[in-house]
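Narrative progress, year one. The postdoctoral researcher (J.K.) led the effort to move from monomer predictions toward full complexes, under supervision of the PI. The following entry was the first complex the group processed end to end, covering 371 residues in total.
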Amino acid sequence: MEKPDEESFNKLIVSNRASIYRICRAYIYDASLADDLYQEILYQIWKSIRNFKGHAKVSTWVYRIAVNTAISFNLKNKRQQHEPLPEFFQVAYEDTMDEKKASEAKLDHLRYCINQLEPADRLIISLVLEDKSYKDIAEITGSNANLVGVKINRIKGRLLKLMTTKQHYEL
Amino acid sequence: MNFDELKSSWQTQPLNSGMEINELKTTLDNKWNKYQQSLYRTNICMTLGFLAATIVITWVFFAFQAEFGLAFKLSLASTCLLMIVFAAIAWRSYDFKKDHLEVASTDFIKYQLQKISWQRKVISQYIWIYMVLLWLAVMTYMVEILAPATATLRYSAIGITTLFLVIVAFRDARKQKSRLARLDDMAAELEQQQKMLISN
């Protein structure tokens, strides 16, 4: 088996690593597990890069590998799902909290709420958050292109509701 | 709060993977090499094992066929069949190690479900076929070898060997129960995800 093409891999990673990482953070709440998933996805891309035939767009190919690796990873790490809300969220927002901390808290809260969604919905919303079109999302996940819009609106609604109801503090 | 605000805040989050790109490449390289070595080792061991067994069985067959009867030939035939069943299961399982990650998720899940169904069959059905063939090979061999011995010795040897195989099978069956439960659990979760991706 020949070694994967390092140059193509570098190009792919440079342009997609932030998106891949965000998908991991959306899918897995625990940061260290999300790191493991991130590395697993890069490894799978590294392994599969020679087999890329160009039948789909490069980005669709990368996202498919990312999403499918996440599905596989999730099966092996089921116990890590739906962790309790961190104590950090239970305390009221203080004026002394600086902007950076507040922004990180907001992001963590968003991650937590995404983690409350069903696994399939988590994958879809992570693609929506990456600004993927309905057509791309249907291609990546294999969902029906005509139904994907309805599904996304439902997930968005559920996420916004979670963000409101689980918010114990005012950001 | 609206969704666009969430999206823009989401996209500005820093990449904290905790690993530099060079470090990452080294890790991937090591993992890749380990993966290649493990494939290489498995393939070499399996090929050498079957080759050695085939040579020995062929030699035994031609060297002793005149001295022994039908049971002996049946024993060798069962052993060969055993190897074929084992090879077929091993190669089919090996084929399932390829994950086909570049397909749409619904197809990926479908493939994973087939993989789980195969693993389920191996655990719940094929392993028993393997055990029966193993028992048949050992028994026919013993019947032939112990033909000149007393009936007590012959039946004791057969009884002890059968008991040993039954104990092994029973112990495996207990382990299989938890493995089957785990596989069923995984299949249920995948089916649920599949359903959610397909429906609206």
